[in-house]
Amino acid sequence: MSSSSSSLLEMEIFQYIDAHQSDFIKDLKEWVAVESDSVQPHLRKEVMRMMALAADRLAALGATVNLVNLGSHQLPDGQVLPLPSVILGELGKDPQNPTVCFYGHVDVQPAKKEDGWNTDPYTLTEIDGNLYGRGATDNKGPVLAWINAVETFRALKFAMPVNFKFVIEGMEEAGSLGLEKLLEEENQRFFSDVDYIVISDNLWLSNKKPALTYGSRGNACFFVEVECGSKDLHSGTFGGIIHEPLLDLIALLDSLVDSTGHIQIPGIYDSVAALTEEERKLYESIEFELEEHRKNCGVKKFLYDTKEEILLHLWRYPSLSIHGIEGAFHEQGIKTVIPAKVIGKFSIRQVPHMDLSVVKKQVVKHLEGVFSKRNSPNKLKVSMPLGAKPWLADVNDLLYKAARRAIKTVFGEDPDFIRDGSTIPVARMFQTVTQKSVMMLPIGAADDGEHSQNEKISRHNYIEGTKLFAAFFLEISKLHRNLHETSHTEAIN
Amino acid sequence: MSSSSSSLLEMEIFQYIDAHQSDFIKDLKEWVAVESDSVQPHLRKEVMRMMALAADRLAALGATVNLVNLGSHQLPDGQVLPLPSVILGELGKDPQNPTVCFYGHVDVQPAKKEDGWNTDPYTLTEIDGNLYGRGATDNKGPVLAWINAVETFRALKFAMPVNFKFVIEGMEEAGSLGLEKLLEEENQRFFSDVDYIVISDNLWLSNKKPALTYGSRGNACFFVEVECGSKDLHSGTFGGIIHEPLLDLIALLDSLVDSTGHIQIPGIYDSVAALTEEERKLYESIEFELEEHRKNCGVKKFLYDTKEEILLHLWRYPSLSIHGIEGAFHEQGIKTVIPAKVIGKFSIRQVPHMDLSVVKKQVVKHLEGVFSKRNSPNKLKVSMPLGAKPWLADVNDLLYKAARRAIKTVFGEDPDFIRDGSTIPVARMFQTVTQKSVMMLPIGAADDGEHSQNEKISRHNYIEGTKLFAAFFLEISKLHRNLHETSHTEAIN
Question: Which residues form the active site (chains A, B) (predicted)?
Answer without folding.
Answer: 107, 172 (proton acceptor)
